[in-house]
Design goal:
alpha/beta, globular, binds zinc ion, eight-stranded parallel beta barrel, TIM Barrel, two-stranded antiparallel ribbon
């Protein structure tokens, strides 16, 4: 692989440049963090940290995140989800190249109920492509892991056939990621059959054989991962499931590490499990719970340090105006800074520091 010899343009990557980025991660033995964003504050903080770490990065929106981006008061929730995601994508398209790194734009879990959101975004993406010659997003995720494998793969095939002509990739889920991510999935692990928390290599092979002729895709495989941060010992991570899947497909197709794996529920994971998963072909690790907490910690600390500014416009004892302290830029910036600091740690854990493919 001669990835280092052909640098990519900074900004949003898609099509061939996206595929080169994924290949560079796997060949270089590192992965990129995929962060759920809800507004320009989180987008800019992620870009800020990616730039100072000279790492490429993945920015993604859940249905709920997109709706919030569009405006939570809008009565038509589906329209808010679609247009909110378009708005976020346009902000990232405009600003990303200023940070000198490659940025993947992605949407997170879409179960059956969220398919109209993804289909609406594909329609928006088709219009955007006609106008600009680039897609709106680098990839979308379809999560029909709670349905039968046949139905899951049939729907993924149908969607990927629409994405491929736009130079877009598809992420699908095989096996169930435990916990709940923004309303998708089950919060109660005891209700989920534990064997379904582990993907079967034969299923990955079937997905590989079905989707490879249609277009580029990645697989969120379950190896005991759970969304959210829980007390340790609830479910055991088994990254070797990823290795077993790669080995099975390698033996059939004579291709090294053929599957592009995605690690969901990365928040709070053991560093050794992360390193093992990357060795087995993980190029993307989702992180949401930890970055949500990081943003809130910065804001919380600011409010605790400046309590008067959140109750009075003029200090009751010193009679000084408090405008410079309650200016929302101050406390939003405090959240951006702690989010960016948490991202520094993610880039380090995933081994992507200094490895941007932009040049
Ligand atoms: Zn997930």
């Amino acid at each position: 692989m001669t990835v280092s010899s052909s640098k990519l343009k900074s900004g949003v990557v898609w099509g061939e440049s996206y595929q080169k980025l994924v290949a560079a991660c796997k060949a270089g033995g590192y992965a990129l963090p995929a962060v759920n964003v809800v507004g320009t504050n989180s987008v800019n903080a992620v870009l800020e940290s990616a730039a100072r770490n000279k790492s490429d990065v993945i920015i993604q929106l859940s249905g709920g995140g997109a709706q919030f981006f569009g405006g939570p008061s809008l009565a038509d929730g589906l329209q808010a989800k679609i247009l909110g995601a378009v708005s976020a994508a346009q902000h990232v398209h405009l600003m990303a190249e200023q940070y000198g790194v490659c940025v993947v734009l992605h949407t997170d879990h879409a179960n059956r109920g969220l398919l109209p959101w993804v289909e609406g975004l594909i329609a928006q993406g088709e219009t955007f492509f006609k106008k600009n010659g680039t897609p709106l997003f680098s990839s979308h995720m379809i999560d029909l892991s709670e349905e039968s494998l046949d139905t899951n793969l049939a729907e993924c095939s149908r969607i990927l056939a629409r994405l491929a002509p736009l130079g877009m990739s598809l992420e699908l889920e095989l096996g169930i990621t435990g916990g709940e991510e923004d309303g998708v999935g089950s919060e109660d692990l005891s209700e989920t059959d534990h064997s379904r928390l582990y993907t079967h290599p034969e299923d990955v092979l079937r997905a590989f054989d079905t989707l490879t002729p249609i277009g580029h895709f990645s697989v969120a495989a379950s190896f005991g991962n759970v969304h959210g941060v829980y007390a340790p010992g609830n479910v055991k991570l088994k990254p070797e499931i990823l290795k077993n899947s790669q080995d099975l497909i390698e033996s059939r197709h004579k291709k090294q590490k053929p599957v592009n794996f995605v690690f969901h529920g990365g928040s709070g994971s053991d560093k050794k499990d992360i390193a093992d998963a990357i060795t087995y072909g993980v190029f993307k690790m989702n992180i949401d719970t930890d970055t949500q907490f990081a943003f809130s910690q910065g804001v919380g600390a600011y409010v605790t340090q400046n309590p008067e500014a959140f109750r009075y416009q003029i200090h009751p004892e010193t009679h000084k105006p408090l405008k410079s302290l309650y200016d929302p830029r101050k406390w939003l910036r405090a959240g951006e800074k702690t989010l960016a600091t948490r991202m520094d740690e993610a880039f380090k854990d995933l081994g992507s520091v200094g490895k941007t493919q932009a040049g």
